[in-house]
Design brief:
Largest interface: A-B, 23 and 27 residues
Mean pLDDT of chain A: 95
Number of strands of chain B: 11
Number of helices of chain B: 0
Shape of chain A: globular
Strand content of chain B: over 45%
Radius of gyration of chain B: 13 Å
Number of strands of chain A: 11
Low-confidence stretches of chain A: none
Low-confidence stretches of chain B: none
Distance between the termini of chain B: 36 Å
Largest sheet of chain A: 7 strands, mixed
Largest sheet of chain B: 7 strands, mixed
Shape of chain B: globular
Structural class of chain B: mainly beta
Order of helices and strands of chain A: EEEEEEEEEEE
Strand content of chain A: over 45%
Structural class of chain A: mainly beta
Oligomer: heterodimer
Chain lengths: 120, 107
């Protein structure tokens, strides 16, 4: 059974960089036809896609965040990562990692999510 | 970017009622649409993919239909455990976009 687990600091100061890692177990991040992505959800609000990555390294980003976002992969550790720079309180959210593909390009496996609060 | 809208934003129904949620895309997305259920404090769960395919393990009271720009999620007989927020998502192209959500509760 595929499992995804987010990890990283739960508190980040304004103007600093938010860094999260998603560890994939029960399957290979290098499998064909899958994209790996980050989605976030501010408290009490809806889902916002941040970006997705193919194991080969090709990436797609939300245009509204593109200038601040980097998603990368470490296939040797079966992990992919999110970096979001120059954060503000508006970036406070639960951050989810998820697998896209396999079932109609939908996100079929999700991590449990991790709350990141931006505050001094 | 493809914009997704949902209606209603919330619905209150009795146990056993049929509940219908609609989702509209700002341009045609063929059948590249997914539906998710999210309960408080939990990650979204995939219910339906490719507009009408039921994800493994999802109860058969959930069904999806539609193609092009207009889609529907139906719960044939609402159960207490179906209390959640439901999101549609277009899977046609990047950037991925979600609908704003529909909150379902028991009357």
């Amino acid at each position: 059974q595929l499992q995804l687990q987010e990890s990283g600091p739960g508190l980040v100061k304004p103007s600093e960089t938010l860094s999260l890692t998603c560890t994939v177990s029960g399957g290979s991040i290098s499998s064909n036809n899958y994209y790996w992505g980050w989605i976030r959800q501010p408290p009490g609000k809806g889902l916002e896609w941040i970006g997705s990555l193919y194991y080969s390294g090709s990436t797609f980003y939300n245009a509204s965040l593109k200038a601040r976002v980097t998603i990368s992969v470490d296939a040797s550790k079966n992990q992919f990562s999110l970096k979001l720079s120059s954060v503000t309180a508006a970036d406070t959210a639960v951050y989810y990692c998820a697998r896209r593909g396999g079932s109609g390009r939908s996100f079929d496996y999700w991590g449990q999510g991790t709350l990141v609060t931006v505050s001094s | 970017d493809i914009q997704m809208t949902q209606s209603p934003s919330s619905v209150s129904a009795s146990v056993g009622d049929r509940v219908t949620i609609t989702c509209q895309a700002s341009q045609g997305i063929s059948s590249w649409l997914a539906w998710y259920q999210q309960k408080p404090g939990k990650a979204p769960k995939l219910l339906i993919y490719s507009a009408s395919s039921l994800q493994s393990g999802v109860p058969s009271r959930f069904s999806g239909s539609g193609s092009g720009t207009d889609f529907t999620l139906t719960i044939s007989s609402l159960q207490p455990e179906d209390i959640a927020t439901y999101y549609c998502q277009q899977a046609n192209s990047f950037p991925v976009t979600f609908g704003p959500g529909t909150k379902v509760d028991i009357k």
